[in-house]
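ERR on first pass: missing label on line 2. Operator R.T. fixed the label and resubmitted. Corrected input:
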Amino acid sequence: MRRGLILYGLALFALLVQGVAATFIPPYLCPDLAFLFVIALALLLPPISGVFLAAGIGYATDVLAAGVVGQHALLALCVFGLTRVCNRPLDLRRPTSLALYVAVLSTLTAVAMVGVNNFMAAASSFELDFTLRQGLRAAVNAIWAWPLLAGLQRIVWWLSDSDRDRRGLAVTLRDTIT
Amino acid sequence: MREWLFRLRVPLLFSGLVVLALATMAIDRRRGDENLPWWSGTLLEVAVPIQKMVAIPAEAARDLWSHYIHLVDVRAENGDLRDRLARLEEENLQYREALIASGRLERVAAMRDDLPVPMLPAEVVGQDISPWYRSVLLDRGGNDGVRAGMPVVTDRGVVGLVTAASRNATKTMLLLDGQSAIDGVVQRSRAQGVVRGRGGDRLVFEFVVRGDDVQVGDDILTSGLDAVFPKALRIGTVVEIEPGDSELVKTATLRPAVDFGKLEQVFVMLWRGPAMELLYPGDAAESAAAAGP
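pass 2 clean. output:
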C-alpha cells in the first residue's frame, strides 16, 4: 500500500514536471512519462497493484491533458496488459528489446489515439509533420525507457516491505543485468 | 467457485477497469455541464502551484544558460571586453525588454479599448502532457469568473478556448489542437472559411469557395459567425495556398498570429458567445454576471 502510494505520487510529480518541461522544449521531444511509467510498472510490480496504478496514472493524465476523460486510462490499461503479455516472449528486461518494444508501441498508440480522435471529432491529423513528430517521439521514448525502468527498479526495491518482495525483484535485477 | 474466482482475479480486475474506463468516456462525452468532477478539479488545483514551483528552477537554468554559458567563449577571448560586453548586453536586454513591454502594453491597451469585454490576465503554467493534444493549463479559474467556453487571446491574436475550469485552474484548448475549428474571414477580400488546427505548428484555412480571393500574406480574422469568438480578432497569416482536388472549395495553410512556442501570459475574455451559452445552459446567468454590463 505504502509502496503503491509513493509510486503513484512519484508518477504524478513526473507528469507535472513533464507539463512544465513542454513549455521549454518542443512537446514531441519530451518523453511520454505516463506511458513509460506504465510499461515499467507492468515489468516491475505484481499484476494487481500494477493494474491499479496504471489505471490511476491514466486517469491523472486525463485530468491534466485535453480529450475525453477515460481515454488515457483505457490506453494505460491496454499498454499495461500488452506489456505483461509481451514480457516473456520478447524478454523486455533487456535494454535493446525494451527500446524496440517502446518505439513500436509508441507508434501504435499514436495511430490508435489519432484514430479515436478522428472518429470522435472528425479531425484529420495523418500528415507528414505528424508522422515525423511521432517518429521523433517514439525515438525519445525508446531512449528514456531503459534509464526510467532502471531507476524505478531501484525505488521499488527500496520501497519493498518484505525480503520476499526484494528477493523477487533481485531476480529481475539480475536478469536485467545479464 | 471461490477458487475459480481467485484464479481469475487478475483478468476479472483488468476487465472491470477497462469497462470502467469505457464507461467514464461515455459519461464524459454526454456530460452537459461544465463543472469538473471533484477529483478532477482537486488534481488541477494541486497541479498549478506545483508546476509553478517546478518552473522556477527550470527558468533559472534557462537564464543561466543564456546569460552565462554563452559568455564563456567571450571571456576566453578577452576578459576586459567580456565585462564590457556583458554590461552592454544587459543594458541592451533591459532596453529591449522595456521596448517590448511598452509595445505590448500599448497593444493590450488598444485591444482592451477595441473590445467591450472584460479581460482577465492569466499565466500559462503548463503544457498538455499528452502528445496528441495541444492545450495549456492557466493559473486562473472559476473563482476569477472563468468558465468553460470563454475565448482566450493575447495582444497578437486568438489563443484558444477554455474547455474546463476548476476553482483556481483552467484548461485551454489551443487553436493548434486537431479538434479546434473556428470561423475565419480574409481581412482584405472578406472571403470566408473555417480555420482548423492540425496538431502541429500550422493552421489550415479550409472550405473557402474556390472563386474567392485568398492570397499568400493575407491576414485571417475571426468572423464572429461561429458565435464563439468575437469578430475581428487576428488568427493568422496565409503562407501557402494548397492546390486541392475539389472544384468547389480550396484550402490554405496559415501561420498563427500567436507564437505558441513562447506563450507565457494570456487574457481570458470574461464573455461567452451564444453558441457556448447554448452548450453550457446551466451557467448562463452566472457567466453574464461575471462578464458585467
